[in-house]
Amino acid sequence: GAGVSQSPSNKVTEKGKDVELRCDPISGHTALYWYRQRLGQGLEFLIYFQGNSAPDKSGLPSDRFSAERTGESVSTLTIQRTQQEDSAVYLCASSLGRRARGTEAFFGQGTRLTVV
Amino acid sequence: KQEVTQIPAALSVPEGENLVLNCSFTDSAIYNLQWFRQDPGKGLTSLLLIQSSQREQTSGRLNASLDKSSGRSTLYIAASQPGDSATYLCAVKDNYGQNFVFGPGTRLSVLP
User: What would the 3-class secondary structure string for A31-86 be?
Assistant: First the structure.
């Protein structure tokens, strides 16, 4: 596609429910990143994919968070048993990846998650 | 562990001024540095990417410089306009990991 697409753009969920956030990277981009941005704060790294594997999961804040990627394309970030502290904007980015490590990262518009 | 800081945290200037935003990083072993802007409630828009071997990059009224040895980058905005009002973020990709480490941002307001 023309850019990184994320869905839904907004999600309101009740505490304790599971949510899935979706990211469609730019076609041909093998590297995919998830970040979290709490209100008024900076970007917090969550996970990085190269192809379908995730060599760096160091940023996932707890075992309630998981992510997968299939077909070197779409990625889903799943948050189980959501808590109010999970409320944030979740941003996805993609880049050409390992073969061109110096290339730019392009971000989607984010999913604003509100846990009530 | 790489840490990125940005000064100032916020800046308000009248339209037409030239201005400089600063970014510092603690580990000079970086692969590249990227400047972004973020409008309220929006995602990030890439402005400039500087490879570790480069000293500067230019795009329109924007010029970014990189001094890797001192761990600094500056974003120069010429003839600022109200439409430049946004939060400006710098991010570095280091040689050890694959993720980008972001600074906290500089919130810029350009007054008409």
Answer: EEEEEEECCCCCEEEEEEEECCEEEECCCCCCCCEEEEECCCCCEEEEECCCCHHH
pLDDT per residue as tens digits for the range B48-58 = 999 888 999 99
Q: Which amino acid is at B102?
A: F
Dump pLDDT digits (tens) for A3-53: 999 999 999 999 999 999 999 999 989 899 999 999 888 899 999 998 888
Show the 3-state SS of B51-81. Answer: ECCCCEEEECCEEEEEECCCCEEEEEECCCC
The 3-state DSSP composition of chain A as helix, strand, coil percent (nearest 5) reads 5, 50, 45
The chain B residue lying nearest A48, using CA atoms, is: B99
Cβ–Cβ of A31/B100 closer than 8 Å? no
pLDDT at position A102 is 57
User: Mean pLDDT over residues B60-87, rounded?
Assistant: 97
Q: Does A99 touch chain B (CB under 8 A)?
A: no
Query: CB distance from B41 to chain A under 8 Å?
Result: yes
